Amino acid sequence: MWQRIKTAIVLVIIVGIAMFASQTPILFAPLLAIGATIAAHEWTKLMPKWRHPLLFVLMILVLTLASMMFKVTWLFWWVAAVVIWLMATSWVRVFPTNTNWYGKQLVLIGAVLLTASITAMFYLWQLSAWWLLYVFLLVWCADSGAYFVGRKFGRRKMAPNVSPNKSVEGLVGGLVTGLLVVIAISLFKLQLTGLSLVAFAALSVLTILASVLGDLFESMLKRRADVKDSGTILPGHGGVLDRIDSLLSATPIFALGFWAIQHFGLMVV
After folding, report:
1. Is the distance from CB of 67 to CB of 9 less than 8 angstroms?
2. How far from 63 is each of 15, 20, 58, 74, 119, CA to CA, in Å?
3. What percentage of the chain's residues is helix, strand, coil (to nearest 5)?
4. Tens digit of each residue's pLDDT (9 = 90 or more) over 213-234
5. Closest Cα to residue 243, out of 253, 231, 254?
6. pTM assigned to the model
7. Domain boundaries, the chain
Protein backbone atom coordinates (compact mmCIF):
# COMPACT_ATOMS: atom_id res chain seq x y z
CA MET A 1 0.00 0.00 0.00
CA TRP A 2 2.80 2.44 0.87
CA GLN A 3 4.47 1.77 -2.49
CA ARG A 4 1.16 2.51 -4.20
CA ILE A 5 0.80 5.79 -2.31
CA LYS A 6 4.36 6.88 -3.12
CA THR A 7 3.87 6.17 -6.81
CA ALA A 8 0.58 8.10 -6.81
CA ILE A 9 2.24 11.13 -5.19
CA VAL A 10 5.04 11.14 -7.76
CA LEU A 11 2.50 10.88 -10.61
CA VAL A 12 0.41 13.74 -9.25
CA ILE A 13 3.50 15.95 -8.98
CA ILE A 14 4.71 15.15 -12.51
CA VAL A 15 1.30 15.58 -14.13
CA GLY A 16 0.53 18.69 -12.07
CA ILE A 17 3.76 20.41 -13.08
CA ALA A 18 3.27 19.52 -16.75
CA MET A 19 -0.30 20.84 -16.70
CA PHE A 20 0.13 24.06 -14.76
CA ALA A 21 3.78 25.14 -14.97
CA SER A 22 3.46 26.63 -18.47
CA GLN A 23 0.65 27.78 -20.72
CA THR A 24 2.62 26.56 -23.71
CA PRO A 25 2.60 22.83 -24.54
CA ILE A 26 6.36 22.56 -23.99
CA LEU A 27 5.84 20.29 -20.96
CA PHE A 28 2.38 18.84 -21.41
CA ALA A 29 2.65 17.69 -25.04
CA PRO A 30 5.84 15.63 -24.41
CA LEU A 31 4.19 14.06 -21.35
CA LEU A 32 1.20 13.02 -23.47
CA ALA A 33 3.51 11.64 -26.15
CA ILE A 34 5.47 9.61 -23.59
CA GLY A 35 2.27 8.31 -22.02
CA ALA A 36 0.86 7.35 -25.42
CA THR A 37 4.07 5.52 -26.33
CA ILE A 38 4.10 3.48 -23.11
CA ALA A 39 0.37 2.76 -23.34
CA ALA A 40 0.78 1.63 -26.96
CA HIS A 41 3.56 -0.74 -25.93
CA GLU A 42 1.34 -2.19 -23.20
CA TRP A 43 -1.56 -2.50 -25.66
CA THR A 44 0.55 -4.75 -27.90
CA LYS A 45 0.98 -7.16 -24.98
CA LEU A 46 -2.79 -7.42 -24.60
CA MET A 47 -3.41 -8.16 -28.27
CA PRO A 48 -3.04 -11.56 -29.93
CA LYS A 49 0.60 -12.14 -30.80
CA TRP A 50 1.64 -9.69 -33.48
CA ARG A 51 4.93 -9.81 -35.34
CA HIS A 52 5.52 -6.05 -35.39
CA PRO A 53 4.71 -4.53 -31.97
CA LEU A 54 7.23 -1.73 -32.49
CA LEU A 55 5.37 -0.69 -35.64
CA PHE A 56 2.18 -0.22 -33.62
CA VAL A 57 4.01 1.87 -31.01
CA LEU A 58 5.52 4.09 -33.72
CA MET A 59 2.13 4.41 -35.40
CA ILE A 60 0.49 5.59 -32.18
CA LEU A 61 3.29 8.07 -31.51
CA VAL A 62 2.99 9.54 -35.02
CA LEU A 63 -0.81 9.64 -34.86
CA THR A 64 -0.93 11.37 -31.49
CA LEU A 65 1.73 13.95 -32.35
CA ALA A 66 0.16 14.68 -35.75
CA SER A 67 -3.35 14.84 -34.29
CA MET A 68 -2.31 17.30 -31.58
CA MET A 69 -0.98 19.57 -34.34
CA PHE A 70 -4.01 19.32 -36.64
CA LYS A 71 -7.20 20.24 -34.76
CA VAL A 72 -9.35 19.42 -37.77
CA THR A 73 -8.97 15.70 -36.99
CA TRP A 74 -10.08 15.87 -33.36
CA LEU A 75 -13.81 15.46 -33.92
CA PHE A 76 -13.16 12.47 -36.16
CA TRP A 77 -11.19 10.65 -33.46
CA TRP A 78 -13.74 11.46 -30.75
CA VAL A 79 -16.72 10.31 -32.81
CA ALA A 80 -14.87 7.14 -33.85
CA ALA A 81 -14.05 6.45 -30.20
CA VAL A 82 -17.70 6.92 -29.18
CA VAL A 83 -18.75 4.36 -31.82
CA ILE A 84 -16.23 1.86 -30.44
CA TRP A 85 -17.32 2.46 -26.84
CA LEU A 86 -20.94 1.90 -27.83
CA MET A 87 -19.96 -1.45 -29.34
CA ALA A 88 -17.88 -2.23 -26.25
CA THR A 89 -21.00 -2.13 -24.07
CA SER A 90 -22.28 -5.24 -25.84
CA TRP A 91 -18.83 -6.89 -25.75
CA VAL A 92 -18.71 -6.51 -21.98
CA ARG A 93 -22.29 -7.73 -21.61
CA VAL A 94 -21.76 -11.03 -23.48
CA PHE A 95 -18.20 -11.79 -22.34
CA PRO A 96 -16.88 -14.51 -22.40
CA THR A 97 -19.57 -16.09 -24.58
CA ASN A 98 -18.55 -14.02 -27.58
CA THR A 99 -15.06 -12.58 -28.05
CA ASN A 100 -15.05 -11.87 -31.78
CA TRP A 101 -13.65 -8.42 -31.03
CA TYR A 102 -10.39 -10.04 -29.88
CA GLY A 103 -8.24 -10.24 -32.97
CA LYS A 104 -6.30 -8.16 -35.46
CA GLN A 105 -8.97 -5.46 -35.24
CA LEU A 106 -7.49 -4.51 -31.88
CA VAL A 107 -4.79 -2.68 -33.85
CA LEU A 108 -7.43 -0.30 -35.20
CA ILE A 109 -9.34 -0.18 -31.93
CA GLY A 110 -6.22 0.66 -29.97
CA ALA A 111 -5.16 3.32 -32.47
CA VAL A 112 -8.55 5.05 -32.28
CA LEU A 113 -8.97 4.85 -28.50
CA LEU A 114 -5.45 6.03 -27.64
CA THR A 115 -5.43 8.85 -30.21
CA ALA A 116 -8.92 10.02 -29.24
CA SER A 117 -8.01 10.11 -25.56
CA ILE A 118 -4.73 11.97 -26.10
CA THR A 119 -6.29 14.59 -28.39
CA ALA A 120 -9.20 15.03 -25.94
CA MET A 121 -6.80 15.67 -23.07
CA PHE A 122 -4.85 18.12 -25.19
CA TYR A 123 -8.04 19.91 -26.27
CA LEU A 124 -9.28 20.30 -22.70
CA TRP A 125 -5.85 21.41 -21.51
CA GLN A 126 -5.72 24.06 -24.25
CA LEU A 127 -9.07 25.42 -23.07
CA SER A 128 -7.72 25.47 -19.52
CA ALA A 129 -5.74 23.03 -17.43
CA TRP A 130 -8.58 23.30 -14.93
CA TRP A 131 -11.01 21.69 -17.38
CA LEU A 132 -8.78 18.67 -17.73
CA LEU A 133 -8.34 18.58 -13.97
CA TYR A 134 -12.12 18.61 -13.63
CA VAL A 135 -12.42 15.43 -15.70
CA PHE A 136 -9.62 13.82 -13.68
CA LEU A 137 -11.34 14.70 -10.40
CA LEU A 138 -14.72 13.58 -11.70
CA VAL A 139 -13.39 10.16 -12.68
CA TRP A 140 -11.17 9.68 -9.64
CA CYS A 141 -13.84 10.72 -7.13
CA ALA A 142 -16.47 8.53 -8.80
CA ASP A 143 -14.03 5.61 -8.82
CA SER A 144 -13.21 6.13 -5.13
CA GLY A 145 -16.88 6.40 -4.21
CA ALA A 146 -17.67 3.22 -6.14
CA TYR A 147 -14.81 1.38 -4.41
CA PHE A 148 -15.78 2.26 -0.85
CA VAL A 149 -19.54 1.92 -1.29
CA GLY A 150 -19.14 -1.32 -3.23
CA ARG A 151 -16.80 -2.73 -0.62
CA LYS A 152 -19.25 -1.94 2.19
CA PHE A 153 -22.64 -2.49 0.59
CA GLY A 154 -21.98 -4.32 -2.70
CA ARG A 155 -24.31 -7.26 -3.29
CA ARG A 156 -25.43 -7.33 -6.92
CA LYS A 157 -22.60 -7.94 -9.37
CA MET A 158 -22.48 -5.52 -12.29
CA ALA A 159 -20.36 -7.62 -14.68
CA PRO A 160 -19.28 -10.78 -12.82
CA ASN A 161 -17.56 -12.36 -15.83
CA VAL A 162 -15.44 -9.26 -16.40
CA SER A 163 -14.84 -7.72 -12.98
CA PRO A 164 -16.34 -9.72 -10.10
CA ASN A 165 -15.61 -7.03 -7.51
CA LYS A 166 -17.71 -4.34 -9.19
CA SER A 167 -21.29 -4.05 -7.99
CA VAL A 168 -24.42 -2.12 -8.87
CA GLU A 169 -24.32 -0.55 -5.40
CA GLY A 170 -20.77 0.59 -6.08
CA LEU A 171 -21.86 2.15 -9.38
CA VAL A 172 -24.58 4.10 -7.56
CA GLY A 173 -22.07 5.18 -4.94
CA GLY A 174 -19.71 6.37 -7.66
CA LEU A 175 -22.45 8.33 -9.38
CA VAL A 176 -23.46 10.03 -6.13
CA THR A 177 -19.85 10.90 -5.31
CA GLY A 178 -19.29 12.22 -8.81
CA LEU A 179 -22.48 14.28 -8.64
CA LEU A 180 -21.15 16.01 -5.53
CA VAL A 181 -18.20 17.17 -7.64
CA VAL A 182 -20.55 18.25 -10.44
CA ILE A 183 -22.75 20.25 -8.06
CA ALA A 184 -19.80 21.90 -6.35
CA ILE A 185 -18.20 22.98 -9.63
CA SER A 186 -21.29 23.88 -11.64
CA LEU A 187 -23.11 25.84 -8.94
CA PHE A 188 -20.37 27.41 -6.84
CA LYS A 189 -17.50 27.78 -9.32
CA LEU A 190 -19.14 28.12 -12.73
CA GLN A 191 -22.45 29.45 -11.38
CA LEU A 192 -24.45 27.68 -14.06
CA THR A 193 -28.24 27.89 -14.24
CA GLY A 194 -31.07 26.65 -16.42
CA LEU A 195 -30.25 24.72 -19.59
CA SER A 196 -26.51 25.23 -19.16
CA LEU A 197 -26.62 23.51 -15.78
CA VAL A 198 -28.72 20.62 -17.10
CA ALA A 199 -26.45 20.08 -20.12
CA PHE A 200 -23.25 20.25 -18.09
CA ALA A 201 -24.59 17.92 -15.37
CA ALA A 202 -25.89 15.42 -17.96
CA LEU A 203 -22.52 15.40 -19.75
CA SER A 204 -20.69 14.88 -16.45
CA VAL A 205 -22.92 11.93 -15.51
CA LEU A 206 -22.40 10.40 -18.97
CA THR A 207 -18.65 10.86 -18.49
CA ILE A 208 -18.78 8.97 -15.19
CA LEU A 209 -20.69 6.09 -16.79
CA ALA A 210 -18.20 6.07 -19.67
CA SER A 211 -15.29 5.84 -17.21
CA VAL A 212 -16.83 2.70 -15.72
CA LEU A 213 -17.08 1.18 -19.21
CA GLY A 214 -13.42 1.98 -19.86
CA ASP A 215 -12.42 0.21 -16.66
CA LEU A 216 -14.55 -2.83 -17.53
CA PHE A 217 -13.23 -2.96 -21.09
CA GLU A 218 -9.60 -3.07 -19.98
CA SER A 219 -10.45 -5.72 -17.36
CA MET A 220 -12.11 -7.76 -20.10
CA LEU A 221 -9.13 -7.30 -22.40
CA LYS A 222 -6.71 -8.44 -19.68
CA ARG A 223 -8.85 -11.49 -18.92
CA ARG A 224 -8.92 -12.45 -22.58
CA ALA A 225 -5.14 -11.95 -22.84
CA ASP A 226 -4.69 -13.81 -19.52
CA VAL A 227 -2.57 -11.13 -17.82
CA LYS A 228 -2.98 -9.50 -14.41
CA ASP A 229 -1.69 -6.02 -15.26
CA SER A 230 -0.99 -4.21 -18.51
CA GLY A 231 2.57 -3.48 -17.35
CA THR A 232 4.90 -2.96 -14.39
CA ILE A 233 6.23 0.56 -14.99
CA LEU A 234 4.21 2.05 -12.09
CA PRO A 235 5.13 0.25 -8.84
CA GLY A 236 2.01 -0.71 -6.95
CA HIS A 237 -0.26 0.34 -9.81
CA GLY A 238 0.73 -1.86 -12.75
CA GLY A 239 1.02 -0.22 -16.15
CA VAL A 240 -0.02 3.09 -17.66
CA LEU A 241 -3.12 1.49 -19.20
CA ASP A 242 -4.13 0.29 -15.74
CA ARG A 243 -4.11 3.92 -14.56
CA ILE A 244 -5.79 5.54 -17.56
CA ASP A 245 -8.33 2.86 -18.53
CA SER A 246 -11.23 4.98 -17.22
CA LEU A 247 -9.84 8.10 -18.89
CA LEU A 248 -9.58 6.34 -22.26
CA SER A 249 -13.35 6.40 -22.47
CA ALA A 250 -14.16 9.42 -20.28
CA THR A 251 -11.98 12.08 -21.93
CA PRO A 252 -13.11 11.80 -25.58
CA ILE A 253 -16.76 11.59 -24.55
CA PHE A 254 -16.46 14.64 -22.29
CA ALA A 255 -14.46 16.53 -24.94
CA LEU A 256 -17.02 15.78 -27.67
CA GLY A 257 -19.94 16.70 -25.42
CA PHE A 258 -18.21 19.85 -24.17
CA TRP A 259 -17.47 20.91 -27.74
CA ALA A 260 -21.14 20.40 -28.63
CA ILE A 261 -22.32 22.40 -25.60
CA GLN A 262 -20.15 25.33 -26.67
CA HIS A 263 -20.97 24.94 -30.36
CA PHE A 264 -24.71 25.25 -29.67
CA GLY A 265 -24.22 28.15 -27.30
CA LEU A 266 -25.35 26.34 -24.15
CA MET A 267 -22.19 27.34 -22.29
CA VAL A 268 -19.44 29.88 -22.84
CA VAL A 269 -15.89 29.35 -21.47
Report:
1. no
2. 22, 25, 8, 11, 10
3. 75, 5, 20
4. 999 999 999 999 999 999 888 8
5. 231
6. 0.95
7. 2-263
